[in-house]
């Protein structure tokens, strides 16, 4: 089967046209000179985590930001790299396939060859397993031919996508040494990039010459922080899903007899569901983050939906479309504990779940498990309808992502809502048509899509940045592009240490005692104070009652819609990297004005102002520390 | 809620662009003169049915074909209609919404206004229910503004979509009389067009002035016969589904660990599944028609899939994509009887199903039904996994289409295949990875799509033809376009009596006795001797083993793929209407050559040749009669 990777494929007319598309490069990546400017040493978002992270990553924590500049930029301290020896680079896909991933490989290969045609790019076949087993394919122009701007990860494939155990890390180290790699590029989401940071640290410790670079590619859109505005694939996934959601909305409005419950892939966070709502205007969306923040129970959610159905029926509307994120189920407090058996086991909370897990391991039949659980777990389990019980119990060994996507939350809620609407109808409080639900899960059918123009461009540019990172000799960095909502010739390219994106989870284990997790990049959840959520909040009432359905249409590559970007990307006022640079400029200006020799008055004024500035910032930093994982 | 119909909608950028698209008209429909040529009186495909159909439709059976001609066409007998009094026409949507339906309304409205600006088009709100209740909306340019080239049926809505009972037919007659309609246009599939024929007959009998016209619009693509090459909506549905299937194929190839079982909407016939297979090249498709022809049992199907999984595993391929048509379940012999409870009850076979139905009516709880059935029905029911049992039992009252789409055949087969693969693995005959299935149903998410260019054009042209039919004073006709695989300026426009498309079902009830059904248009099944199926057959082996996945990409409106047409439309050598005209020309030529006064030798030669021609044709006609419903 390995021989199937990288073989030319039969392309459709449209695929052929797409394979000829050449993404543009921002000015800073053009030419053959790499110009890098280093910013200040980085910290992490939460000052409370500094100790834990710096201790876990002694070699790679606190490294400076890197900005890549255009050849003509007048920055005196920029390091100019004109010497490009031939290098050997390895690259692999980790985790769920995401549209645009192939373009990272293409971008990197292109950058390598531009700077030195003798350089070599080795793709690892079958993800991390291929890395451990040192199965490689040399990436050439010929091989890329039918994969440029195409979806999927089938150029190289992927497998388990974990580089975490001592054994796995050792195998990766050996592979990089044996293959004499100058750099290893890991394409993936939060987990894979955390693994990349760990690998970088281990390599530095072991004095291995291979630099490790991470690339933010994940359809979930949850690798989001000060440095990373969005991920490769998110744009496409949202466009493909929005098309389908809109089709279902049109359908609902035509037949006027169904409520559609649509669950969207996207792991724990609800970014995909939020973005699709902003694009398609379905009647309702239930974000996991809202549920978690309000501590809604299953009963509350059911009631909320039923009230909406009833209110609509009073306006003679007996149809509707309701979106649910994949991670919703995890956010419902009473289901959360039971789910721990499946989701990755976080030490202090694993106990409830482990009850089921260990019973299954002892060979207890799933049907008789309920009677052997502690009373409350058993009561909860018995409350759930049989098909959900089965889904919870039958696959405890599979990996967490497959698991989460196989729990049919949409059916659970439709089932509970139907029961409640029937009750209300009997009782006489609901007078609409008989409630009819149709359930959908939109996941796999979007993941393999042809990438949107945005994702083609973003992936390709990130691939180029990987080369610049390696040329600058950086280890443990992630390639970043900011200012993404503007056209690609305005994009700012850089690199940030992965450790600067990490946080540490704290749990109150028992009164007085607390435990902390390993530093990691955690999935960014939807910011309930952010602008994208605000846009939803102010429109939710009208979306619910007025059927303002909007159909962005099928993914286009030309004409209207082809250059549209995610609503949530465009409304957020991000550009963190740009602002960091701006601040640096102000500080430099102050230094220049208050040089030794300046007047006493200027110095006194500077001291006075700076003292109050630092005081305000210290206070703000310490208050922001008790809180959110993400900005 | 009725007030919501026809209101302007917020359109996305792409939708706006599409709303400006102007479909072209073939030359024969241009200008303000209607030129119609009548062909010979029509019969029906099977000579054995003539008696039953002509008896049921004394006023509308045997009417001639009508061909609409360009203004410059030199056809001496063509009737030229230049006088266009203002007329009142009603139009309604019946049955499952299908992309392009709105364009029929637009085309008709446009044709009406071109020929007489005082003419009125009334849309019935909410399908047949709106017709009975005489709820109308006058279709104007303003109202059409945001519905041109858009998906769904939300301009007018639709409801139960049946005009069959005496009461319903009477209500329809009253509506047409009260509203003084010159014509009633019914947009729908096989059932609705059968209803249209019945209505035409009743109206003629009642000397009602309203002419009834049918338009072939159904996503199932099963209104296919000598006169109708394909249906409005089929092209779009296949393109949207093919995109998703291809995405899933790419996904399968990237992750290499799942088998995807995808069920496609399309009712009893497997046209959608066949077309999608020809576009996307998944590993396997199981057509209902193949299963019915080979009398495959559930066990046979499971074995067939398992053998394929095993053969692929031997080549180290542990992934795949398998398509199943919605109607497959009906085609499996042993499930067929049980399903009769849900599908429309055909008298002689209803007994098994009716067992369940009547027990439910008596208030027997679904769980205890099995014990009260006859032994064989009970055994079959108990063999099925619980979720399928529930789906079979719990909704016996809902309409057959909803029912069929809610039986999760894909899960049933995945379940059976998984059990068998696990057995083979234990036994040691299967040595591949653990079998992992993911199930999808693609239906509602395609139905509301923006229509493809083909469906926009086809729907619009059919709308125009409706006006020509009405101007020619025809009743009980369906608007037809032939030569569809060529560009629209080569399309041939006409009209065929709906009765000419009917067949009669015969059942052997008991030895010696047989019973016949009502004449109706029956869904055309996939022709296992046709070219489209042959194309599948010769490639099936390679599709199965070689992963020749092909991604037509998302529906495009410009550039490559925008003008592509269904593979099954293009490979079939149809143009029946063109050939009928060609034959007429030959017969006319013979008449001209062998005019009274010609030589004895010429006459003798003509008689000799014609005698053998008629003999050959008689023999062929009688053998073709015992067989297929469709050509």
UniProtKB/TrEMBL annotation, chains A, B:
<keyword id="KW-0324">Glycolysis</keyword>
<feature type="domain" description="Phosphofructokinase">
    <location>
        <begin position="88"/>
        <end position="330"/>
    </location>
</feature>
<dbReference type="InterPro" id="IPR011183">
    <property type="entry name" value="PfpB_PPi_PFK"/>
</dbReference>
<keyword id="KW-0418">Kinase</keyword>
<comment type="pathway">
    <text>Carbohydrate degradation; glycolysis; D-glyceraldehyde 3-phosphate and glycerone phosphate from D-glucose: step 3/4.</text>
</comment>
<dbReference type="GO" id="GO:0046872">
    <property type="term" value="F:metal ion binding"/>
</dbReference>
<dbReference type="GO" id="GO:0003872">
    <property type="term" value="F:6-phosphofructokinase activity"/>
</dbReference>
<dbReference type="GO" id="GO:0015979">
    <property type="term" value="P:photosynthesis"/>
</dbReference>
<comment type="subunit">
    <text>Tetramer of two alpha (regulatory) and two beta (catalytic) chains.</text>
</comment>
<comment type="function">
    <text>Regulatory subunit of pyrophosphate--fructose 6-phosphate 1-phosphotransferase.</text>
</comment>
<dbReference type="Pfam" id="PF00365">
    <property type="entry name" value="PFK"/>
</dbReference>
<keyword id="KW-0479">Metal-binding</keyword>
<dbReference type="InterPro" id="IPR035966">
    <property type="entry name" value="PKF_sf"/>
</dbReference>
<keyword id="KW-0460">Magnesium</keyword>
<dbReference type="GO" id="GO:0005524">
    <property type="term" value="F:ATP binding"/>
</dbReference>
<protein>
    <recommendedName>
        <fullName>Pyrophosphate--fructose 6-phosphate 1-phosphotransferase subunit alpha</fullName>
    </recommendedName>
</protein>
<keyword id="KW-0808">Transferase</keyword>
<comment type="similarity">
    <text>Belongs to the phosphofructokinase type A (PFKA) family. PPi-dependent PFK group II subfamily. Clade 'Long' sub-subfamily.</text>
</comment>
<dbReference type="GO" id="GO:0005829">
    <property type="term" value="C:cytosol"/>
</dbReference>
<dbReference type="InterPro" id="IPR000023">
    <property type="entry name" value="Phosphofructokinase_dom"/>
</dbReference>
<keyword id="KW-0021">Allosteric enzyme</keyword>
<keyword id="KW-0963">Cytoplasm</keyword>
<dbReference type="GO" id="GO:0009749">
    <property type="term" value="P:response to glucose"/>
</dbReference>
<dbReference type="GO" id="GO:0047334">
    <property type="term" value="F:diphosphate-fructose-6-phosphate 1-phosphotransferase activity"/>
</dbReference>
């Amino acid at each position: 089967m390995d021989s199937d990777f990288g073989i030319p494929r039969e392309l459709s007319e449209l695929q052929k046209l797409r394979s000829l598309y050449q993404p543009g490069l921002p000015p800073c990546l053009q030419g053959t000179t790499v110009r890098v400017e280093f910013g200040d040493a980085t910290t992490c978002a939460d000052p409370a985590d500094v100790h834990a992270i710096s201790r876990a990553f002694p070699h790679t924590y606190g490294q400076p930001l890197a900005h890549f500049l255009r050849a003509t930029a007048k920055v005196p301290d920029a390091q100019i790299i004109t010497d490009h020896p031939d290098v050997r680079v390895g690259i692999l896909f980790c985790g769920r396939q995401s549209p645009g991933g192939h373009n990272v490989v293409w971008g990197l290969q292109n950058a390598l060859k531009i700077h030195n045609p003798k350089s070599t790019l080795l793709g690892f076949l079958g993800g991390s397993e291929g890395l451990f087993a040192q199965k490689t394919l040399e990436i050439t122009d010929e091989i890329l031919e039918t994969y440029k701007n195409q979806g999927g990860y089938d150029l190289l494939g992927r497998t388990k996508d974990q580089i975490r155990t001592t054994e796995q890390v050792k195998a990766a180290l050996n592979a990089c040494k044996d293959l004499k790699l100058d750099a290893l590029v890991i394409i993936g989401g939060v987990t894979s990039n955390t693994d990349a940071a760990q690998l970088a640290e281990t390599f530095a410790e072991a004095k291995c010459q291979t630099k490790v670079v991470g690339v933010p590619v994940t359809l979930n859109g949850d690798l989001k922080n000060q440095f990373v505005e969005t991920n490769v694939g998110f744009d496409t996934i949202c466009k493909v899903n929005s098309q389908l959601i809109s089709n279902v909305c049109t359908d609902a409005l035509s037949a006027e007899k169904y409520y559609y419950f649509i669950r969207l892939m996207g792991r724990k966070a609800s970014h995909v569901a939020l973005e699709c709502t902003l694009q398609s205007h379905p009647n309702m969306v239930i974000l996991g983050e809202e549920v978690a923040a309000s501590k809604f129970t299953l009963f509350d959610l059911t009631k909320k939906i039923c009230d909406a159905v009833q209110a609509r029926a009073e306006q003679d509307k007996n149809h509707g479309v309701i979106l649910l994120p994949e991670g919703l189920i995890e956010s419902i407090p009473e289901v959360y504990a039971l789910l721990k058996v499946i989701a990755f086991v976080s030490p202090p909370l694993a106990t409830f779940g482990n009850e089921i897990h260990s019973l299954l391991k002892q060979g207890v039949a799933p049907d008789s498990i309920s009677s052997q659980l502690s009373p409350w777990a058993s009561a909860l389990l018995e409350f759930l309808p049989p098909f959900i019980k089965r889904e919870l119990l039958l696959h405890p060994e599979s990996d967490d992502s497959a698991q989460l996507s196989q729990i049919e939350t949409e059916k659970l809620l439709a089932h509970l809502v139907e029961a409640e609407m029937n009750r209300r109808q009997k009782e006489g409080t609901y007078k609409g048509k008989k409630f009819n639900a149709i359930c959908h899960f939109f996941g796999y059918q979007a993941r393999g899509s042809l990438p949107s123009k945005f994702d083609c461009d973003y992936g390709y540019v990130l691939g180029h940045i990987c080369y610049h990172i390696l040329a600058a000799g950086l280890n443990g960095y992630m390639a970043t592009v900011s200012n993404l909502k503007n056209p690609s010739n305005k994009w700012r390219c850089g690199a940030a240490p992965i450790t600067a994106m990490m946080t540490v989870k704290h749990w109150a284990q028992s009164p007085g005692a607390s435990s902390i997790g390993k530093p990691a990049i955690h999935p960014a959840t939807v910011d309930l104070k952010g602008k994208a959520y605000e846009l939803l909040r102010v429109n939710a009432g009208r979306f619910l009652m007025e059927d303002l359905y909007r159909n962005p249409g099928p993914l286009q590559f030309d004409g209207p819609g082809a250059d549209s970007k995610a609503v949530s990307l465009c409304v957020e006022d991000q550009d963190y990297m740009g602002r960091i640079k701006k601040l640096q400029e102000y500080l430099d200006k102050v230094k220049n004005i208050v040089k030794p020799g300046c007047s006493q008055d200027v110095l006194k004024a500077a001291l006075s102002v700076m003292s109050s500035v630092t005081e305000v910032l210290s206070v703000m930093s310490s208050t922001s520390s008790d809180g959110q994982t993400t900005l």
